[in-house]
Structures
1.
Amino acid sequence: MKGEQRKKIVKTIKIDVDKCNGCRACELICSAFHAAPQYSSNNPRRARIRVVHDPLRDIYVPVYAGEYAAAECAGRDKYTIDGKEYDECSFCRASCPSRDVFKEPDSGLPLKCDMCESEPPLSEPMCVQWCLADALIYEEREEEVEEEEAQEEIEIGLEAMASKHGWQKLLDTAARMSRKG
Ligand code: SF4
Ligand code: SF4
């Protein structure tokens, strides 16, 4: 059965790799904004964005933390940019078992960019505000979505995380997050 249609605001951040100068302010402010209490620390390992760097060619590529993946992927992509071949996992957005990127250093729980959801809402996500090079450009658009599908996505995501980390760890983390501020 079809669920009800509702409007959803889709938030995107466009990345202009040519403008990124590798200052990593985006990583710092993201980790500080999400620290508990807020702004109490600024460890880039807790950031939901990371800047992939090739020092020899002066290339910087910001990558946002995406969905949690319970298993390693079966197929991987190789990228060649300006003649340099990058590691298969370099530009992947997933928090997955293959690597330490996009994981909370203390708990190992997956980190995902939440577009700096907060109350009251920000005019723009923090990393966009702090990117003085204008390499990150924030955009919003409206889309129609099925109510049921949106709910289903959340449930599937939670179950996958719970089977890996256990409900207690998820609940402890949620309690810690709710105390931030
Ligand atoms: S703040 Fe902007 S210029 Fe600096 S590393 Fe991040 S994306 Fe690149
Ligand atoms: S949008 Fe917010 S949560 Fe996402 S990477 Fe930027 S600062 Fe972090």
2.
Amino acid sequence: MGELLKIAKEKGGSVIVYQLNDLNIGWCQSCHTCVKSSTVTCAIKDDANKILEDIADADGIIFGTPVYMSSMSGQMKTILDRLRPFTREDNSSKMMPGKKVVWAIAQRNPDSTRYLPVFEKVMFPMKFLGFSECRLLIASGTSDLEELLQQKEIFDKAREIGSWLAE
Ligand SMILES: Cc1cc2nc3c(=O)[nH]c(=O)nc-3n(C[C@H](O)[C@H](O)[C@H](O)COP(=O)(O)O)c2cc1C
């Protein structure tokens, strides 16, 4: 994640980082107000609206999550649900075309293919929301930065994906 952000900054991108755990983000209540509206806003007045606004303005997004119980964290799933305002009642997207998205996954299990089917499925809601291109980066086996940096394959992939995102 750090390497992705570093590359994006090196390439001249301006970066905004949100720590979901530090924010007040409630659960989607399926009120459908957002899909009936032409704007990308949620009826729940909490920190999610600022994230919606910044995603609408951004060229690229990185969603970073640890693997919890073979899937994304609860915090990440909650914000994902709250991105519904990017869609309309007919399920078309309000998102400006051309936006890129990266999912950066950290897992304790050393097998990097273990949860691939789960995160490949996440690419469906990405397309549904209107992201144009999606890439996946998986760091497995450790969360220790020094150890991760020794894993040349992950490090190189992070740099490659970071450059792609900042293009
Ligand atoms: C509630 C919980 C569930 C987890 N489930 C998995 C899992 O299914 N597979 C896995 O590889 N790691 C799992 N982990 C490990 C996390 O992915 C790991 O903690 C995360 O990558 C961050 O690493 P750290 O705890 O060493 O900082 C879980 C951790 C927690 C706290």
